[in-house]
Amino acid sequence: MMLSTCSQRYLDMFPIFTVRVERLKGFCEFVGQEYHNILGHGNVCWMSMLTALESVLKMYVPLKSFFISEDKCSVVQRTMFKDPLTELWLAFVHGNLTVFSDTIKMLGGQDRCAVESAAILRNVEAKLTARRNDNFIPVLVRGLLRELEENGAMSKESFLKTTQSFFTMAVNYLQAWGKHSDDLKDLHGLLLKRQPLREEIQKAAVTLQEKCPNVTINEDALCDEVTGLQEFLNGGSLEEWKTETPLSHRWSTVVTHFKENDIPHTNLARLASVMCLPGSNAPVERVFSQMNDLWTAARNRFTVPTIKAMLIVKTNFNQVHGEAGQRQSNPEEYTFF
Questions:
Q1: Phi, psi for 320 (deg, rounded to 5)
Q2: How does DSSP classify residue 233?
Q3: Domain spans of the chain?
């Protein structure tokens, strides 16, 4: 936060001012450090923050010298770089930002459903809680904290008190905004990450019928269907599926097996239908991005039906390069409107 509010706008000027870049390169040469490009962080894009912090930490010594020696450096920026704790807190944020960046990547997956997203958020909440309880200190921070303690600039107790507040606030935020997904935890057995227990499937059926009274599930018949599911998974499917195998592919494989072998699965299919709930608005945002690429100022005479047809083609017919260099379609990734 300190970087983005105090100096980020100034750092963004480096790529467009050649003279300033050359002066910064001179600082790097003076302190004997390799020059790295200073990357900017977009306020609307969380994913850029980690990369921006990495570039700043690699260049922190020359950057500090550069800003302090600047005649036109603002008071806020000069104060920030003169503060001996600045590098410590930037390193602390960098050490924990990976948790948030990885979570955002997983939540933004094309085939992510609401139940998966709820499990991901609960997992990151558990990670942050564990870091708080264990008084977690990133590796890069340990050396900086040791130096500050020796110089009397900060005590370890004061540092841990602040970090405890950080983790507590993050956990409270996730809990407050994740209340709407509390009921989804009863459906985690349907994710097929492991062999689902019969009790988990029964609990999922009860929860679904409570939240969706129009959904009818015969729990007696469901018991036999769960037996068939467990037998199928015991056949080696769990080992064949990789960790990144989409949930839609897992259930598609199960339903196809049941149909081909005339195994009843009506109630199980109704349970699995809840996996159609989207986990985020990321796939929709991607469609809007594709539309903006197609419907430009130079091509503004497209009709709505034409744009719709083009988007359906681009969304549903994702093509990847085959091993032989030929383009092959992947029907398992089709997404129908």
A1: -125, 155
A2: I
A3: 2-177, 185-275, 282-333
